[in-house]
Write a structure and sequence with these properties.
With 63 residues, the chain is an alpha+beta fold. The chain has one domain. It has 1 helix and 3 strands; from the N terminus they run E-E-E-H. The longest helix has 28 residues. The protein starts with a strand and ends with a helix.
Length: 63
């Protein structure tokens, strides 16, 4: 993960942070201390987003 100096979106501290990408194109930055929590958050969001997209596709195919 490429890092730069900035504010962590989880702890709000100024540190070296890396970019985490969401499936919808948005992104947040996490420091090393918050990285494990941030990865879980991104993974859960992406999983839920894929589930939601799948449901919408199924509804549009039916109707």
């Amino acid at each position: 993960m490429k890092s730069h100096y900035g504010q962590c979106d989880w702890c709000k501290e100024l540190r070296h942070v890396g970019k985490l990408e969401y499936i919808d194109g948005k992104h947040h930055y996490s420091c090393d201390e918050c990285l494990s929590l941030a990865k879980i958050d991104v993974r859960l969001f992406n999983r839920d987003e894929l589930t939601q997209r799948s449901r919408l596709e199924q509804r549009s195919a039916l109707g």
